[in-house]
Please model this.
Amino acid sequence: MSSEPKVADILKKLSEPVHAPQPKREVVIDCHIKELYYGNFKAVRDTHIPIERNTITAFIGPSGCGKSTALRCINRMNDLIQGFRFEGHVHYRGQDMYDKKVDPVNVRRYIGMVFQQPNPFHMSIFNNVAFGLKLNRFKGDLHAQVEKSLRGAALWDEVKDKLKASGLSLSGGQQQRLCIARAIATEPEVLLMDEPCSALDPIATRRVEELMIELKQKYTIAIVTHNLQQAARVADKTGFMFVDTTKGGRTGYLVEFDDTVKIFRDPSAPETQQYIRGEFS
Ligand SMILES: Nc1ncnc2c1ncn2[C@@H]1O[C@H](COP(=O)(O)OP(=O)(O)OP(=O)(O)O)[C@@H](O)[C@H]1O
Model:
């Protein structure tokens, strides 16, 4: 049985007054974006997010404030975008992920990613999970590792009798859990999730949220979400980003970063307070 709190406990906690801050844990990722550009467009500035081990960190804020950009910076997914340039650093266990000697493919081996739309490959359920393992020339027992990953993503019982069926034959929620199984198969330490529930119905969303809470016992998770209730339900830490429109720009920046309970119950900045209250979107 999991000793982690369930969603209902978290909601209860959020309705209680804010007491002492959560104890600090080891920082696994230290992401500091001084300035980030797409071509001449300054998309993000002054955003510093320390991500602590075995926690869920949420990025929230209005559309276009740079949440996905900041998340993609962490495992160098932005490198694939033409014109991307950034000043700052991303340290993973003290090592600079943007050091010239670091291979971005290797970065993604340790820092996996799950996307907004479930995107299983056009292959069997088994091969979807085995794909990254084969790519990395996995030397162990492939079947055992696939089963372990599917169990880890709380999907094993639903698919164990049809591992040869196409990954695309699953429901949307199952497909997203298959993508999570694929992401954890190579045993990354960190999982980045960009709006992982936005294409799912409320029941599948709740299932994935419960799964995230289970997964944080083993992984460190960072998530982008538009859904404030989701951030409140699952995240330990939350960063609120906003858009600076002064000087004719539209540059996202971090307004505040704190324990989720503090952000939702007693935020420091008026912008955060207004956003949480739904005074602007
Ligand atoms: N590939 C790209 N090329 C150019 N500009 C981009 C690119 N991706 C994002 N941007 C711009 O960077 C800014 C931040 O975008 P980003 O998608 O990170 O924001 P977001 O907060 O995740 O938005 P949303 O909540 O709408 O998904 C936006 O102004 C966006 O138009």
Remarks:
- The CA atoms of residues 39 and 83 lie 4 Å apart.
- Residues 172-185 form the longest helix (14 residues).
- The beta strands are 27-38, 41-52, 56-60, 84-92, 95-96, 111-114, 190-194, 220-224, 237-244, 251-259.
- Residues 1-5 have pLDDT under 50 and may be disordered.
